[in-house]
Specification:
Helices cover 35% and strands 19% of the residues. With 410 residues, it is an alpha+beta fold.
Length: 410
């Protein structure tokens, strides 16, 4: 049976640390958005969207106990710069300075590099979220050689789950996916001895995507909890469900079971009205628990009656979108979901398009418009998928969605 070599372990550890940096950077970005530290700023008669002032950020890091002093805070931000998480808005300087200079998260301007490693990381995070949120029986306390492991799974059961949920088309494809996750430090054999096999050997997620990171961990590579390792997976099992729901990666608390505003793409009257009304103006929100709209029962009759007419002026094919010199431009947009959702409706198939946008929602603020075509979601090409598959990608992914859109020139 194939063992894991030392070189593979070193590569997995390095990739695991990179994943921790990405998670910590994303958590910081969301906190800064919530604190209004990231906003549009003017300098020399020019407006720079979604950026922050270095000095203000250093003050914030110290006041929020993320760094003990300014020098450490600068080192932390330099670490994020070196991992392509943040950059200076004009890219004239590769050093983070404690000065009145403007910097920006690459996720906020679409310049974040979605290479193969990042795509594997995003895939692993999405699978982790699905397994946790879905209360799947795959992750359980199991024993191997007399030792109990929290949230572990046999390799064969994970591949069964991937096939049942449409994440793999064959056992071989599922095996290749799981091997990639192991080689990128996202899952591991419980005793770190074996590669991934479609059998009874036990594995764990060695990254807890939902644990709140402290930035100081990034400067302590020897800290097993920060980098992951066997302790990271055990720690994931020790957390309570309450800890998981308070995570900054949780899309919402008490997720409603029925239609849920713009999280849903079901063509109902509710969506139709929401596209023209600010969510805060709904009187029914005051009477429903958690401020969510009550679910609307769906049936074939109501769908036929309430299905809104497509906003497209004509049918557009995938070939047209991909043709060089076509009347479309690509735009990369970052949408940070709020407590209600993301604020847009997807319709259609091969390609999907934006049917409606809530004018007061996150999508509108990010630049999402009606009649744009969805090309990629978080680095994954969705051009040939239908709206159900695209919606599933958004709903089961992180709170922040990076969309690559094709926008008509006319």
């Amino acid at each position: 049976m194939e063992k894991i070599g030392s070189s593979m372990k070193r590569k997995a550890t390095a990739r695991q640390h990179k994943a921790e940096v990405m998670i910590a950077g994303e958590q910081l970005r969301l906190r800064l958005h919530d604190s209004k530290l990231i906003k549009d700023r003017r300098y020399h008669l020019r407006t720079y969207p979604n950026c922050f002032v270095a000095q203000e950020l250093i003050d914030w890091l110290i006041s929020h106990k993320e760094a003990p002093d300014r020098a450490t805070a600068v080192r932390l931000m330099q670490h994020l710069m070196e991992h392509d998480i943040v950059h200076q808005v004009c890219d004239k300087c590769s050093v983070f300075k404690d000065a009145k200079l403007l910097y920006r998260f690459r996720k906020d301007d679409g310049t974040f590099p979605f290479n193969s490693e990042v795509k594997v990381f995003i895939r692993g995070q999405r699978l982790y979220e699905q397994l946790i949120l879905g209360r799947s029986s795959v992750l359980q306390v199991r024993e191997e050689l007399g030792v109990a492991y929290q949230r572990s799974f046999p390799g064969c059961q994970m591949i069964d789950w991937l096939l049942q949920n449409g994440e793999a088309e064959s056992r071989r494809q599922g095996l290749e996916l799981c091997r990639a996750l192991l080689e990128h430090g996202i899952i591991q054999h419980v005793s770190l001895k074996h590669h991934f096999f479609d059998g009874a050997l036990l594995y764990q997620f060695c990254i807890n995507f939902r644990r709140r990171r402290r930035l100081a961990e990034l400067l302590t590579e020897s800290d097993g909890d920060a980098v992951g390792g066997a302790g990271g997976a055990e720690g994931a099992g020790a957390h309570t469900q309450e800890n998981f729901t308070d995570s900054p990666f949780t899309l919402r608390k008490n997720l409603p079971q029925g239609n849920s505003n713009f999280l849903s793409v079901q063509p109902t009257k509710e969506i139709r009205v929401m596209s023209a009304v600010r969510r805060g103006s709904w009187p029914s929100q005051q009477n429903s628990p958690g401020g969510y709209l009550p679910p609307v029962p769906l049936c074939s009759a109501s769908l036929a009656k309430c299905n809104p007419k497509s906003v497209l002026r004509r049918r557009v094919t995938c070939r047209e979108l991909l043709s060089p010199g076509g009347p479309f431009i690509k735009r990369v947009l970052t949408v940070v979901g709020d407590a209600v959702g993301w604020g847009f409706v997807v319709r259609g198939s091969s390609p999907c398009y934006i049917q409606a946008v809530d004018p007061g929602g996150p999508a509108a603020a990010a630049g999402v418009k009606v009649r744009q075509f969805v090309y990629q979601v978080n680095g994954l090409c969705v051009l040939h998928l239908d709206y159900r598959a695209v919606t599933k990608l958004v709903m089961t992914g992180p709170r922040t969605v990076v969309l690559e859109m094709m926008e008509p020139l006319d």
